[in-house]
Design brief:
Blueprint (H helix, E strand, L loop, with lengths): L2 H19 L5 H5 L12 E2 L5 E8 L4 E8 L5 E7 L9 E4 L5 E10 L5 E9 L5 E3 L6 E5 L5 E6 L2 E6 L4 E4 L9 E3 L4 H6 L6 E3 L5 E8 L5 E6 L7 E6 L9 E8 L5 E4 L6 E7 L5 E7 L5 E8 L4 E9 L11 E2 L5 E5 L6 E5 L5 E4 L7 E8 L4 E6 L8 E5 L7 E4 L4 E6 L5 E8 L2 E9 L5 E6 L2 H7 L8 E7 L2 E8 L10 E6 L16 H11 L3 E5 L9 H5 L8 H13 L5 E11 L1 H12 L6 E5 L10 H8 L6 H5 L13 E7 L8 H12 L5 E5 L11 H16 L1
Helix pairs in contact: 7-8
Keywords: Hydrolase, Protease
Protein name: S9 family peptidase
InterPro entries: AB_hydrolase_fold, Pept_S9_AS, Peptidase_S9_cat, Peptidase_S9B_N, Serine_Prot_S9B/DPPIV
C-alpha cells in the first residue's frame, strides 16, 4: 500500500468516526422542546427613548412581571408591576400614550387566528391601583391617549369605561352574533386583512372611529366539534366563500362628550381594510378597495362634519397590497409604500396627497418600514437589497439621500428602535446561526452591546448531524429561481439519493430564505439523516423579486407554480446523484394544494406526495384572499376549475397521503372530503388521516408528534 492510499483510508476513517459520533435528531426531541430557541419577549421602547420594557414570565411557579431596562447598560431598572395575590398572572400588556397606565391581559382564550377574549385590568403606575374592566371576557380593550378611559367590545357592541368614575357606557346596541358586529372585524377581515380591532381613538381622545359589519347575508358555515361528550356540537360562524356575499362594512364616528354616533359616507366602498387617525385630531385616514382589490383609495375624513376627500388612489392590473406602513409626520404629510415602479418602495406625500418624491429606489423590495426620525431626517427600513433571500436594516433621508447600511450581515436582520431613534435592538439569524440579539447605535449601526444569543442551542446542535442549506438558483422556464438543497452528512456524489421537495408557493410568499430553522426544517433534518436529499424551490408567484414575478400567476393559481415545481424536479433529477425514480413533494395549505396538483399533473415526475390541510378547489376558500388573485368564480370559472385537483383524480399514479384537521376554520375539511370522494370514485388507492377537532395548524398534546411520525413513515415506506 502506498502512502497516498494509506492517507486516504486514514482520512476516510476519521470522517466516518466523526460522523458516527454525531447523533441524529429525533421527532421526540423536536416536539419535546429539546431545540427550543430563546427570544426576547414583548419588548417595547418607552417614550424617553433610553429605556424599554419586557414581559418576563415563568411557568413554575406561574408568575409574570413587567420590567423596565436601560438601553445603554441593558440592566433592569425596576419592576413596574408583577403578578401577586393582588395582581393576577398576565400574559400581555400595553401602555397608555403617556405611560401612566398599563393594560394587563389575563385568562386569555383564542377565538380565531388573531382574535382573543380575556379578563383585562388597568394598572395605575403612580397609585398602584388595579381596576378590573369587566367581570366577563371582552375583546380588544384600548386605553384612550390620556389613559382616563378604555374602549372595548363585548358581544359585538362597543363600550367605553371611565376609569375615574368607574362607569361604563354602551356605545352601540345593535350587535348580534351572525348579523351585526361593531368595533371588531368579521372572520374574513381578520384572516385576510390581518386585524381584529376595528375602532381607533383620535389623538385627543374626543372621538372614536369604528367599523360596523352587517354579515346578515353572508353564507352560514358550520363544522362538527366532536369533543368528549355523548353528542357532538356545532361550531357556527359566517364565512364568505369565493363569489358569495361579504359583510356590508360602514364607517361611523362616536363623539365621546355628547355620546352621538354619526355615519361617514365613503361612496359605496366595498372593503375598508384600514382606518388611522392623523396627528390632527379632526382628521381620519381611511383606505377603501373595490371587490377585485385592484383599486385602492386613501381618504381624508374631516371629523368635524364627516366630509371626505381623496388623498391618493392606486390601481393595478392585478391587485394592490394592504400593509401597515402608512405613517403621518408632524404636519400630516405621510410616508407610503407602493409597487408603482415595479418593486415595493417608500414614497413621501404632502399633507394633501401630492407626491413629493420617491424615497427608495432599485430592483429590490422594501420588506419592513420601521419609522421616521424627524429630528435627524432619517427613515429606517428593512429590505432585500443585499440579496432576495437576505434582510438588511438601512437608514435614508426623506429625500432619498444619505443611505446607510446599518445591519447587513448575510442572513436575516430585523430591528426594534427606541422611541427617539437613538438605539435599536437587532435580531439576527441565518440558516446556520440561531437568533442573536444585539444593541446598536442607530446613527451608524455600530454595535453597542451583545444582549442574548442562542449559543447553548448552537453548542447542543454540535453533537448532532445537521445538514446545511446549500443556497443557489436554478433556471426554470426562463427564470432564475431561488433554491436550497440539504444533503446527508455522509453524502457520496457517486451514489443515488431519493429527492424530497418542499414548497409553499403562495402569492408573495418565500420559503427559500437565509434564516434559522423552524419545526419543518428540523423535520427535514430527520429525513436527511435517513438518506434523503431535501430541496426547496420558490417558483413564479412567490415574493421579493418584484411586482411582475409575483403577479404573473394572476387568475391562474396553480398553473405556473405547478409547472415550475415539476420542471425543477425534472432538472434536479438530471443530477448524477439524484435517483429520478424516487422523487417526492410535500406542502401544507397552499403547499398541499401544490403537492396534490404536482403528483397529478406531474405523474411521470413525482412518485410520492403529501398534502396537509390542502385547498382542493378555490371555490371553497374565502372571498378576500381568493378573489384578490382569481376574481370571482362567476368571472373566471376555468381559472378555478382547470387547476382544482379533484377535477382530475384519474391522473394519480404514485403514492399520496392526504391529511386534515376536522376543526379547520380556515381551509375547511370539505376540501379534503371532496378530494377523497373524487379519488374513491376514480378507484385510486391513497392514504389519509383526519385529526379530530384540530385547526389549520394541527397541533395540541401529542398531535404534532403523531402527525410527523405518520409523515416520516410515509416517506420512508414510499420513497
Amino acid at each position: 500500500m502506498n502512502k497516498q492510499s494509506f492517507l486516504f483510508l486514514f482520512l476516510l476513517g476519521v470522517v466516518t468516526f466523526s460522523t458516527a459520533q454525531k447523533k441524529k435528531i429525533t421527532l421526540e426531541e423536536i416536539f419535546g422542546g429539546e431545540f427550543r430557541t430563546e427570544y426576547m419577549d414583548v419588548l417595547r421602547s418607552m417614550n424617553n427613548g433610553t429605556q424599554y420594557t419586557i414581559l418576563n414570565t415563568s411557568r413554575s411557579p406561574r408568575s409574570s412581571s413587567l420590567d423596565k431596562y436601560d438601553y445603554e447598560t441593558l440592566q433592569k431598572v425596576e419592576t413596574i408591576v408583577a403578578s401577586s395575590d393582588a395582581v393576577p398572572y398576565f400574559s400581555s400588556y400595553s401602555f397608555s400614550d403617556d405611560e401612566s397606565q398599563v393594560l394587563l391581559a389575563t385568562e386569555v382564550e383564542p377565538i380565531f387566528r388573531r382574535s382573543r377574549l380575556g379578563i383585562y385590568y388597568v394598572y395605575d403606575i403612580a397609585s398602584k391601583e388595579l381596576v378590573k374592566i369587566s367581570e366577563v371576557k371582552i375583546q380588544e380593550p384600548t386605553l384612550s391617549p390620556d389613559g382616563s378611559k378604555v374602549a372595548y367590545v363585548l358581544d359585538n357592541d362597543l363600550y367605553v369605561m371611565d376609569l375615574a368614575e368607574r362607569t361604563t357606557k354602551q356605545v352601540t346596541t345593535d350587535g348580534n352574533k351572525g348579523t351585526i358586529i361593531n368595533g371588531v372585524t368579521d372572520w374574513v377581515y381578520e384572516e385576510e386583512f390581518g386585524f381584529v380591532r376595528a375602532f381607533e381613538w383620535n389623538s385627543d381622545g374626543s372621538k372614536i372611529a369604528f367599523l360596523r359589519f352587517d354579515e346578515t347575508e353572508v353564507p352560514h358555515f358550520s363544522m362538527d366539534v366532536y369533543g368528549t361528550e355523548l353528542y357532538p356540537s356545532q361550531h357556527e360562524f359566517k364565512y364568505p366563500k369565493a363569489g358569495e356575499k361579504n359583510s356590508i362594512v360602514t364607517l361611523h364616528m362616536f363623539d365621546v362628550a355628547s355620546g352621538a354616533i354619526s355615519n361617514v359616507d365613503l361612496d359605496g366602498a366595498y372593503y375598508i381594510p384600514r382606518i388611522k387617525w392623523m396627528n390632527n385630531p379632526d382628521h381620519l385616514s381611511v383606505q377603501t378597495m373595490n371587490r377585485h382589490q385592484n383599486n385602492l383609495k386613501l381618504y381624508d375624513v374631516n371629523a368635524k362634519d364627516n366630509s371626505v376627500s381623496v388623498l391618493l388612489e392606486e390601481t393595478d392590473a392585478a391587485y394592490v397590497d394592504i400593509d401597515d406602513d402608512l405613517t403621518f409626520l408632524a404636519d400630516d404629510s405621510f410616508i407610503w409604500t407602493s409597487e408603482a415602479d415595479g418593486y415595493n418602495h417608500l414614497y413621501l406625500y404632502g399633507r394633501y396627497g401630492k407626491l413629493k418624491n420617491q424615497i427608495t429606489e432599485g430592483p429590490w423590495e422594501v420588506t419592513s418600514y420601521y419609522g421616521y426620525d424627524e429630528k435627524h431626517d432619517r427613515i429606517f427600513y428593512q429590505s432585500v437589497e443585499n440579496g432576495s433571500i437576505n434582510r438588511g436594516v438601512y437608514s435614508i433621508s426623506s429625500k432619498g439621500k444619505k443611505k446607510k447600511a446599518l445591519s447587513t450581515d448575510e442572513g436575516t436582520n430585523s430591528a426594534s428602535f427606541s422611541s427617539d431613534f437613538t438605539y435599536y435592538i437587532n435580531t439576527y439569524s441565518s440558516a446556520d446561526m440561531p437568533y442573536r440579539f444585539t444593541l446598536h447605535d442607530a446613527s451608524n449601526g455600530k454595535l453597542v452591546k451583545e444582549i442574548k444569543d442562542n449559543s447553548e442551542l448552537l453548542n447542543k446542535l454540535e453533537g448532532y448531524e445537521i445538514a446545511p442549506k446549500e443556497f443557489s438558483t436554478i433556471n426554470i422556464n426562463g427564470y432564475d429561481l431561488n433554491m436550497y438543497m440539504m444533503k446527508p452528512a455522509d453524502f457520496d456524489p457517486n451514489k443515488k439519493y431519493p429527492l424530497f421537495m418542499f414548497q409553499y408557493s403562495g402569492p408573495g410568499s418565500q420559503q427559500v430564505a437565509n434564516r434559522w430553522m423552524g419545526t419543518r426544517d428540523y423535520w427535514h433534518q430527520v429525513l436527511v439523516s435517513e438518506g434523503y436529499i431535501v430541496a426547496c424551490v420558490d417558483g413564479r408567484g412567490t415574493g421579493l423579486k418584484g411586482r411582475y414575478f409575483k403577479k404573473l400567476t394572476q387568475k391562474e393559481l396553480g398553473k405556473y407554480e405547478v409547472e415550475d415545481q415539476i420542471d425543477a424536479a425534472k432538472k434536479l433529477s438530471e443530477l448524477s446523484y439524484i435517483d429520478e425514480d424516487r422523487t417526492g413533494i410535500w406542502g401544507w395549505s397552499y403547499g398541499g394544494f401544490m403537492s396534490t396538483n404536482c403528483i397529478l399533473k406531474g405523474n411521470d415526475t413525482f412518485e410520492m406526495a403529501i398534502a396537509v390541510a390542502p385547498v382542493t378547489s378555490w371555490r371553497f376558500y374565502d372571498t378576500i384572499y381568493t378573489e384578490r388573485y382569481m376574481q370571482t368564480p362567476q368571472e373566471n370559472p376555468t381559472g378555478y376549475d382547470d387547476n382544482s385537483p379533484f377535477n382530475y383524480p384519474e391522473l394519480l399514479k404514485g403514492k399520496y397521503l392526504l391529511v386534515h384537521g376536522s376543526g379547520d376554520d380556515n381551509v375547511h375539511v370539505q376540501n379534503t372530503m371532496r378530494m377523497i370522494e373524487a379519488l374513491v370514485q376514480a378507484n385510486k388507492q391513497f392514504d389519509w388521516a383526519i385529526y379530530p377537532d384540530k385547526n389549520h395548524g394541527i397541533y395540541g398534546g401529542n398531535t404534532s408528534l403523531h402527525l410527523y411520525t405518520k409523515l416520516t413513515n410515509f416517506v420512508k415506506e414510499n420513497l
